[in-house]
Amino acid sequence: MTLDKIELRVLEDEPSSNSHELASVLGVSSHQTVLNHLHQMDFVHKKPRQDPHELTEAQTKRRVEVCRQLLENPLDDRFWKRIVTSDKKWVYLVNHNRRKRWVLRGQDRFGKKVMICVWWNFEGVLHFELVPDGRAVNAELYCQPLDRVYDKLKAKYPTLFRWKRALFQQDNAKTTKKKFDDLDEVEVLLHPAYSSDAAPGVLRFEAGRMVLQSNPMLADRWQKIVEDDGLYFEE
After folding, report:
1. Segments making up each domain of the chain, as ranges
2. Per CATH, which fold does 57-227 belong to?
3. Distance between start and end Cα atoms, the chain
4. SS3 231
5. CATH for 3-40?
6. 211: β partners
7. What is the mean pLDDT of each run of 10 residues along the chain (235 residues)?
8. pTM (whole model) above 0.90
């Protein structure tokens, strides 16, 4: 039996094996030899896909409905520059003391954390705020900073507001919908729940720095969601 066939049989039994483990099982001196064979057979080593949320049937249908509506927009450069989006993340405060310590069962071992909410557009961050300590981020609390975001956006992009062209990408929760009804000169660009893959970008923290990661080819992503019946798709 050839090495390729033996590798295939081992992978069928244990597909999560790494190249060092495979080399040991196969009696090969170099794990690089195993890697070369796997690459020649067009294998890649991937982590299992982790969906951000287990979607219900109603949520998948809603994702399709919203993405179809989004695709009806004029998908040109002017449209993308009108969009303001937002995200929120938990951030752990720096703790330089790395020694083990006694904590009550259930207590967070990583120390104090705060929630940061950020709003941005094609040029970068427009506004961010830390959520008051101990407060749950519900729609009501999320709406409170919108007046400040609105004021900053209006000062920086007066032409957008003159023509009522600013687009805030939001979900359709009653509280947020009412808040935007109260704000003049803006429109709401719908966003389905549990759909970071359908947003212009997501907020990440890398090495203590805030990073805004864009979702490339956003219109293609909306189309893919429609074609896949609202399910999450492989990146």
Report:
1. 3-40, 57-227
2. Nucleotidyltransferase; domain 5 (3.30.420)
3. 36
4. coil
5. 1.10.10
6. 204
7. 55 63 69 71 57 81 94 90 85 61 53 80 88 68 84 88 78 70 80 86 68 76 93 76
8. no
